[in-house]
Structure formats: structure tokens, C-alpha cells
Amino acid sequence: MQIIEAIESDYKFITGRDRHINEQLVESKIKNGEIYILVEENIRIGWMRFGYFWDNLPFMNMLWLDEEYRGQGFGKKVVEHWEEKMKNKGFNQVMTSTQANEGAQHFYRKLGYKDVGCLLLENEPLEILMAKKL
């Protein structure tokens, strides 16, 4: 598997699948190098995008793999790749979150993420905030 920074031509791939981000923000995230594309045998199989919590703490906003590629270690590889990039930029901690009704919380805990708080929005499941020291 390859992990590459998204480029302009990835815009349709991302916006066609990512329903959790305003399409106008995708362009700026691509320009800022904040979206990685996962490629397996020349096929784009998913992406990971991030931003910065409080504008100074790397925060993984979304990790997505097409259904048929889940459970094969691709997610772990992209998270570790991102963590290494953030460490090389001088960060000593990263964050993410997941809803309490999603299995992703167990995935992140296996990778060393710890629960650090939660957020409860009206008509939404509990959002678990997680952090990891690098």
C-alpha cells in the first residue's frame, strides 16, 4: 500500500465519499497537505484527513477505507504514518475522536490512544475524544 498526499485531481474522489466535510474546505486541506490518500495496486481505497485542535494539536478528523479493504491493516499503517509525520514536525501528542456507538474506538485504543474527554451534541451519540503521546 502507498500513502500519498492528496492532490487537486483527488478532489472528486474525496468529495464523492466524504459526507462529513464541507466541500469548499477540501481544496484548502489538499493545498495544506492535510489529506492522505491510501492506494493499493493503483486503486484509491481510502483517505485520512486531519487538522489542528486549538490550532496547535494535530487532530485526525476522518479515516475512511472502502468496505472491502477494512480489517487488513491499512488503517493502522496510515495512522502510524501520520503520527510519524507529526512527530517529525515537532509535535509530542496527537488526538482523534469517534462516536461511542462506533467500533473505531477499539481500533484507536489498540494503537495506544487514551480517552481524554467527550462531547455531547444534541441528537448525536456521545463523541469520545482520544489522545496519544508520541
List the helices and strands and how they pair.
Layout lengths: L1 E4 L5 H5 L7 H9 L3 E6 L2 E11 L3 E9 L8 H15 L4 E7 L4 H7 L3 E6 L7 E7 L1
Parallel strand pairs: 4-5
Antiparallel strand pairs: 1-2, 2-3, 3-4, 5-7, 6-7
Pfam families: Acetyltransf_1
Enzyme class: transferase
InterPro entries: Acyl_CoA_acyltransferase, GNAT_dom, N-acetyltransferase_domain
Oligomeric state of the chains present here: single chain
Predict the CATH topology: Aminopeptidase
Rg calc: 14 Å
- Tally of contiguous helical segments: 4
So what's the CATH class?
Alpha Beta
By CATH's scheme, which homologous superfamily applies?
Gcn5-related N-acetyltransferase (GNAT)
The separation of the N and C termini measures: 23 Å
Mean pLDDT: 96
Proportion in β-strands: 35-45%
Total beta-strand segments: 7
Structural class: alpha+beta
CATH architecture field: 3-Layer(aba) Sandwich
- Strand order of the biggest β-sheet: 1-2-3-4-5-7-6
Shape: globular
Uncertain runs are none
Q: Name the helicity range.
A: 25-40%
The ordered H/E elements are EHHEEEHEHEE
Number of domains: 1
Pfam families: Acetyltransf_1
Domain N-acetyltransferase: 1-134
Keywords: Acyltransferase, Transferase
GO molecular function: acyltransferase activity
